[in-house]
Amino acid sequence: MDTAIHLTILNQFFGKKLERSRSLPIKLTDLKETHEYPRCNRFYPLESFPHFQYVYSLAYDCYCRLKEADVLGPDELAACSLKQEPEVVIKIGFIGNLMEESLKCVSKVKGNEEENGKTVWPISPLICFQKDVKISDLKACHKLFVNKDEDEIEIVMDSHIHVVEYDEEKLRKAISICIEKGLVDYLERSMNVIKNSEHGSREDLRDFYLEMKSIIKHVLVEKSTQQHASMPTGIDYGSIPSEIKDLLLREPNVNSFGIWEDATFKIFMDETVDVAILIEKLKSKNERFFKRFEVQVEKKKFTTKIATQLKQGGELHKHTASEKGVECGTLGGFVKDTTTAGNCSDAYALTCNHLYPTLNEPAYANIDGEEKEVGKCIFTTREKSCDFAVVEISKEFYDKCDFKFRRDDEKTCNAEVSEFFPINVGIVHKNGSKTKWTHGRVVSLAFYDKLNQREIFVVKGLGRPFSTPGDSGSIVFARDNSVSQNAVDILGMVYSNHPEIRDDISHPEKEKLDEASGYSETNLKKGDKSYSTAVGKTRGDQLREKIMKNPENYSFCFRMNNAFELLKKEKNLVVSFERVENTDKRDEDCFANLTKSTNL
């Protein structure tokens, strides 16, 4: 096979051009026999690979709730079984002579020579740092050849062999890509079990199915197979065309609408209308949009309802605790003025407008057991569907502030506000003063009602409500897809929960509505496309019952990039979250017992 073709394949895999070497190409098929070189295994805890650990924890949490929900039969549940994290280790094989620096390149954790009774993860990469070893004949699902000398590599046509530059980040990413394929296999197998199950309710099963689908979005993949590439071109998944928005916002019987999961476009209505005529009007405005999204009409009201130490997720009060009717909210996080970096006089707390609707209102918090005024509101707005306020923190309380942003496992990390709302959001997280850490999935990327003339997004909690009263101001974020997991993407802020929902249509009217919006009983047969998009029992009753019983599971959030734009425009204030230089300080002495050249 031509060397240029090999380089093209590797460039696509690693996203960086591999330069040709002046030396002759190394042919992996011409190398010495492998029996001349030592071979060993190392067993690593999941924490050795933070991205894999994060995705695994999402999958395990989902499995635990699936087990508790009792929606699968015993054999089906056994097929979805997943071990708890401490009981699982990752086996990595090595061939050839190993140096201490090579092991450090694989992981900051040394790894054990024995599995010590733990369950070994089914995907086990084989790594070779020595260029004269014939790796092509070895039996392994994933073989990584580490090119230390930047030689030109010529390999046999073997999809299991990947050449990796001698770079810590690139090697760890290649290992993570390999082992996370096992998670994809597990999740897809479980999704198939759920899809074909005859036990639990369709709505419960569908929630777990969609949660697993969301988790898969976090799995690392080669650049050429990123999920984003599968999105249709020419349509912005996170945006609703203006002509559609204008028409629906003018309709007196429509109270809200939005792009929902599974490529559905939901419309929530108050009164009986001719649904078929409405859908026809919509399609005449933008036929192309509705070729991408399936229209579903719901007969209900589903709208927003304005709802010790200074740290992210802490409690902020509008008044002192001694005053009656004190209003509480959440301190979403701290930001600083980027134009005065290092000046501790420019620290701000982010929260909601409905807590601080006017300027110069004092903000109170519990400091050392006492209610104290910690700052004043210097910016507040309800424009662009934001419910956003900024409190300037008094300098005297800086030593009481934890300015760093923390992700869902309480580890400090960098936080960046997404300039554009991502279209492929998986699992999201928030830390609120009432419910603390909760997790959810975005069920609507672009949602509108009569109170909101601009897009917000809707999050449904996983296992419990995503937020409750008092959590307003909580920052919603998603983990990034880096191997080191040292940053998160800030998506927005919770400002409302427990939507106002009414279902006051008579049963005969429901039947007509169901037929017009695709909820007929025949559409719910397994194997039909509507299995993944229709979300209720016959005639959509189950979805209505589900939301009516658990409206608190839904939280409304505005987009943080819109809020920051308003802050910049109106106050000429550009802010950012505090940077963390080293987010994963592990003990470097874990290699102290290794000699500088270890023949394993």
On the 0 to 100 scale, the average pLDDT is: 76
Strand content: 25-35%
What is the number of independent domains?
4
Q: How many helices does DSSP assign?
A: 13
Low-confidence stretches: 1-34, 224-235, 505-544, 583-600
Strand segment count: 31
**Structural class, from secondary structure content?**
alpha/beta
How far the N terminus sits from the C terminus, by CA atoms, comes to 34 Å
Give the overall shape, derived from the CA principal axes: globular
The largest β sheet comes out as: 11 strands, mixed
Summarize the amount of helix as a percent range.
25-40%
Please state the CA-atom Rg, rounded to the nearest Å.
27 Å
How would you characterize the overall build of this protein?
This protein is an alpha/beta fold. The chain folds into four domains: 3-228, no CATH class; 242-304 and 506-551, no CATH class; 310-403, Thrombin, subunit H; 412-500 and 554-570, Trypsin-like serine proteases (Thrombin, subunit H), CATH 2.40.10.10. The protein is built from 13 helices and 31 strands. Helix 2 packs parallel to helix 5 and helix 2 runs antiparallel to helix 6 (202-216). The protein is globular. The chain starts with a helix and ends with a strand. The relative contact order is 0.12. The model is unreliable at 1-34, 224-235, 505-544 and 583-600 (pLDDT under 50).
